[in-house]
Design brief:
Subcellular location: Cell membrane
Domain ABC3 transporter permease C-terminal: 185-303
Family: Belongs to the ABC-4 integral membrane protein family. FtsX subfamily.
Keywords: Cell cycle, Cell division, Cell membrane, Membrane, Transmembrane, Transmembrane helix
Strand order of the largest sheet: 2-3-1-4
Structural class: alpha+beta
Domain FtsX extracellular: 56-161
Helix content: 55-70%
Number of strands: 4
Shape: elongated
Length: 304
C-alpha cells in the first residue's frame, strides 16, 4: 500500500511539473555528456601516452657530408667517431637509460625510406649518399630522454638528437586543455542541473503542501513525506544520465570507431568499452545531484 501511494505521488508530481522535469532531464543530459566527454578524453590521452611512449626512440643523427652545424665542421662522421658513440651507448654508464641502440647506415636509411615512399615520384630521385646515418636508441624509461639528449648533443660527429615526444607532447597538451574546457563546461552545467532540480522539487513540494500537511497530521514520518519528491528528482536525473551514456556510446561507435579510427590509423583510440566503464560514474553523479538538491530543498519546503 505504501509503495503504491509513493508511486502515485511520484506520478502526480511529474505530471504537474512536466515541463520542469523535461528541463531537468535535458540539462542533466547535456552536463553529464560533457562530464563523460572529459573523462573519455582523459582516457584517450592516457592510451596515447602508454602507446606512444612505449615506442619512443631517441634518434641520434650523425653528420652528413654537407652540414652547416658546428659539430659537423669536419665533414661526414668518421668510422672512429661512430664506433666511439656505439661504445658509449653500450657502456655501463648508460645502462640505466639505454635499453638498446641500433645503428642505421645510409644504405639502410635509404632502403627504409624507399619502402615507405615507394609510390611517391619525388622519392625516386634520391640516392643513398643523400640519406643520413643514425643511431636509434630505445630507452629504459622514456621520461629520461633529456639525460640521453644532453649526453650526446654537441658531440663532434653528431648533427642532432631528436625525440618523437617533441611532436607527441604538443598534441597531448592540446587534448589536456580541451579536457579542461569540457570539464569547466560540465561544472557549469552541473550547477545549472542542481539549481533546476532544486527548483523542480520546491515547486512540487509547494504545490502539495496541503497533502503533506495532512500526512504529517496522521503521523507520517519525514522520510515517508519526502521520499516521493526525492524520487522525482532522482528519476529525472537518472533518465538524463542514461541519455548521456547513450549519446556518448553512439558518438564513440559511429564517429570514433567507424569513421575517425579508419581515417587516422596511427592513433590508438578508446571505444565503446570505455563508455560502459564510465557509465556507472555518470549515473552515480546524476543520483548525487538529485540527493544534494533534495537535502537542500526538502528540509524547508515539506515543513508544516
Amino acid at each position: 500500500m505504501r509503495l503504491q501511494f509513493i508511486l502515485s505521488e511520484i506520478g502526480i508530481g511529474l505530471r504537474r511539473n512536466l515541463s520542469m522535469a523535461v528541463s531537468v532531464i535535458l540539462v542533466t543530459f547535456v552536463s553529464l555528456t560533457f562530464v563523460g566527454a572529459a573523462g573519455l578524453l582523459q582516457l584517450q590521452i592516457g592510451e596515447m601516452k602508454d602507446d606512444w611512449y612505449d615506442q619512443v626512440e631517441v634518434t641520434i643523427y650523425l653528420c652528413p657530408q654537407d652540414s652547416d652545424v658546428p659539430t659537423c665542421a669536419g665533414g661526414q662522421i668518421s668510422d672512429e667517431q661512430t664506433e666511439a658513440l656505439r661504445e658509449e651507448l653500450d657502456s655501463p654508464a648508460m645502462a640505466d637509460y639505454v635499453e638498446a641502440a641500433y645503428y642505421e647506415s645510409q644504405e639502410e636509411a635509404y632502403d627504409a625510406f624507399q619502402e615507405r615512399f615507394a609510390d611517391e615520384w619525388w622519392a625516386q630521385g634520391l640516392t643513398p649518399d643523400q640519406m643520413q646515418a643514425s643511431f636509434r636508441v630505445a630507452l629504459v624509461d622514456p621520461s629520461q630522454y633529456q639525460v640521453v639528449a644532453d649526453q650526446f648533443t654537441g658531440r663532434q660527429g653528431v648533427e642532432d638528437v631528436r625525440d618523437p615526444r617533441a611532436v607527441v607532447e604538443p598534441l597531448i597538451l592540446v587534448m589536456n586543455r580541451l579536457s579542461l574546457v569540457a570539464a569547466g563546461i560540465a561544472g557549469i552545467m552541473l550547477l545549472a542541473a542542481v539549481l533546476l532540480i532544486t527548483t523542480t522539487i520546491r515547486l512540487s513540494a509547494m504545490s502539495r503542501r496541503r497533502e503533506t500537511g495532512i500526512m504529517r497530521l496522521v503521523g507520517a514520518s519525514n522520510l515517508f513525506i519526502q521520499l516521493p519528491f526525492m524520487l522525482e528528482g532522482a528519476i529525472a536525473a537518472t533518465i538524463g544520465a542514461v541519455m548521456a551514456v547513450a549519446g556518448l556510446w553512439f558518438g564513440m561507435r559511429y564517429l570514433v570507431e567507424d569513421w575517425l579510427a579508419q581515417s587516422v590509423q596511427f592513433i590508438p583510440y578508446v571505444g565503446t568499452d570505455e563508455v560502459w566503464m564510465i557509465a556507472p560514474v555518470l549515473v552515480a553523479v546524476a543520483i548525487a545531484l538529485a540527493a544534494i538538491s533534495s537535502v537542500v530543498t526538502l528540509s524547508r519546503y515539506t515543513k508544516v
